[in-house]
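Please fill in the sequence for the structure shown.

STRUCTURE ENCODING:
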């Protein structure tokens, strides 16, 4: 394969490296016994495969050294367990194929471990990994899971789940490329937090052969297989420029502003108190989106006011003199809750979700607002301003209702998220009652394009450079300027440094993003005046498609090349 592959760039940076494709799960070997082989041959094949896997684990351990060696040697011991070999031989002797005999034998150990308490249950994943390695060898198929080619590589997969990446060594992954997943997928979030380039929704990527050299451009969403010498030289130049510039960018602190001093709050998106430290370390001025669902997930009843207050207070305490915007519970659709979400909705994304869902059980919202109010009162002494906003607001009436509830508490400002096209279209009315708006571009794209944000094949519609999405943002920005009320962006769009300039040009007054994205955004913003941002916004709005919008802005913006964008 030589053609360029295009996807959606979700984490900036340029790298050149060899591909390693993550293999899918190993299918369960069939029950049928050996056909073209004798029982003895199957027993011998199983023994050879077990030994080969054990030897391979030891070799990897020796190469890695340190703790990894101990772990891998312990795994080799598990594979060499005489009891396991005996059971495999017994099952193969009864007429099973080697792969099936191995599968079943590991399965028996697996059941024993899974029933032996929490610590041992954790070893089940190790056992599954080992079983996959032995069976893959016997079936002649690639080993499932994150590959380990023994050198840095570009990880290519259909999609990545948290379980796949839990044991990933970030030092060896140069970039992520996935066929599925959109800008809000686990891959995108992980890549941003690790600071490695990533392209998602990249059709055809898993067709790249292992070891193929590719250039990954995580800003443009481009993968170039077998690049020419000139292309490699250009990519190396851009990567070097980015490295040189990033050092200063990462160290920069202070309030975000354009080159001519127009203030733009640079805030962090967080999902709980555990993420505060990273946000502070990255120089966030505060929190622009505090997703509170973590308190409510996996529960049969809502958390108490005191429980919520403790969590909110912890976050508020992290930003003395700053701002924390708490989003009230956003249940439903991609975030279902046992006690709140109806089970039988035909289309949950268009059903009882966000503010609508909590309006059905108003005490859930009342408790949450009370907890936020208490945390705000506790943080007032250190000068932290606490704002609150509702997700999935569709009408001015809903905005009015929510703000009235919030204003019963000592909360500085009550606002709404703009995530539904109807809300963007009626932004002046919403801002008639709400103190501020925050645009959730992830859902706004989903609803504007009628394209599920979780479906990788539709990732192109989630591209925040889509001119239609930008026009909706422009409506809200304009309404904010007229009403003299703040309008933030807290969807993934804010994390793209070039797009951040466009958003500011459209009237957005603060940008909230994954902490790792703050440095690039801060740097580029400081190189452009407000007027320049407005010019870039116009270019993007007038483009025919997302690629053209991005290309035009990239060509015109100052210093995009320095960041390898
Ligand atoms: C959004 O929709 O853009 C947003 C920020 O909210 P979430 O991703 O939590 O739905
Ligand atoms: Mg949303």
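FILLED IN BY: designer on duty
SEQUENCE:
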């Amino acid at each position: 394969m030589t053609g360029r592959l295009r996807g959606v760039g979700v984490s900036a940076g340029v790298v050149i490296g060899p591909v390693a494709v993550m293999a899918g799960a190993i299918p369960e070997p069939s029950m049928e016994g050996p056909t073209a082989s004798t029982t003895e041959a199957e027993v011998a094949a199983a023994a050879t495969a077990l030994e080969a896997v054990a030897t391979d684990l030891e070799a990897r351990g020796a190469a890695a050294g340190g703790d990894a060696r101990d772990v891998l040697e312990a795994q080799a011991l598990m594979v060499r367990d005489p009891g396991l070999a005996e059971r495999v031989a017994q099952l193969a002797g009864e007429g099973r194929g080697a792969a099936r005999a191995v599968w079943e034998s590991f399965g028996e150990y697996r059941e024993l471990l899974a029933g032996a308490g929490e610590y041992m249950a954790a070893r089940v994943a190790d056992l599954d990994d080992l079983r996959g390695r032995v069976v893959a060898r016997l079936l002649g198929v690639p080993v499932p899971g994150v590959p380990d080619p023994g050198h840095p590589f570009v990880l290519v997969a259909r999609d990545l789940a948290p379980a796949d990446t839990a044991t990933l060594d970030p030092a060896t992954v140069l970039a992520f490329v996935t066929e599925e997943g959109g800008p809000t997928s686990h891959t995108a979030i992980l890549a941003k937090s690790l600071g490695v380039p990533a392209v998602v929704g990249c059709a055809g990527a898993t067709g790249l052969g292992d070891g193929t050299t590719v250039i990954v451009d995580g800003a443009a969403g481009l993968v170039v297989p077998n690049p020419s010498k000139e292309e490699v030289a250009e990519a190396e130049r851009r990567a070097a420029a980015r490295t040189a510039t990033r050092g200063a960018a990462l160290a920069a602190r202070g309030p975000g502003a354009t080159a001519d001093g127009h203030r733009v709050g640079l805030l962090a998106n967080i999902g709980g108190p555990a993420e505060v430290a990273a946000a502070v370390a990255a120089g966030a001025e505060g929190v622009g989106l505090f997703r509170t669902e973590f308190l409510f997930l996996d529960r049969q009843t809502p958390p108490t006011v005191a429980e919520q207050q403790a969590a909110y207070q912890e976050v508020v305490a992290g930003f003395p003199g700053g701002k924390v915007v708490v989003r009230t519970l956003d249940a439903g659709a991609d975030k279902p809750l046992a006690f709140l979400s109806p089970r039988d909705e035909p289309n949950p994304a268009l059903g009882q979700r966000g503010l609508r869902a909590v309006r059905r059980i108003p005490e859930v919202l009342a408790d949450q607002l009370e907890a936020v109010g208490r945390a705000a009162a506790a943080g007032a002494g250190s000068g932290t301003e606490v704002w609150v906003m509702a997700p999935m607001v569709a009408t001015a009436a809903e905005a009015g209702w929510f703000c009235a509830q919030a204003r019963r508490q000592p909360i500085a400002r009550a606002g709404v998220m703009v995530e539904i096209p109807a809300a963007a279209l009626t932004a002046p009315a919403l801002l008639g009652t709400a103190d501020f708006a925050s645009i959730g571009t992830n859902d706004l794209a989903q609803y504007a394009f009628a394209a599920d944000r979780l479906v990788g094949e539709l990732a192109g519609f989630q591209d925040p450079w889509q001119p239609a999405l930008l026009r909706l943002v422009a409506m809200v920005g304009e309404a904010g300027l007229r009403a003299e009320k703040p309008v933030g962006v807290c969807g993934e769009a804010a994390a793209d440094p070039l797009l951040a300039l466009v958003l500011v040009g459209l009237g957005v007054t603060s940008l909230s993003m994954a902490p790792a994205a703050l440095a690039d955004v801060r740097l580029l913003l400081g190189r452009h005046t407000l007027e320049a941002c407005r010019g870039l916004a116009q270019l993007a709005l007038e483009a025919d498609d997302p690629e053209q919008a991005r290309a035009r802005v990239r060509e015109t913006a100052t210093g995009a090349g320095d960041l390898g964008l």
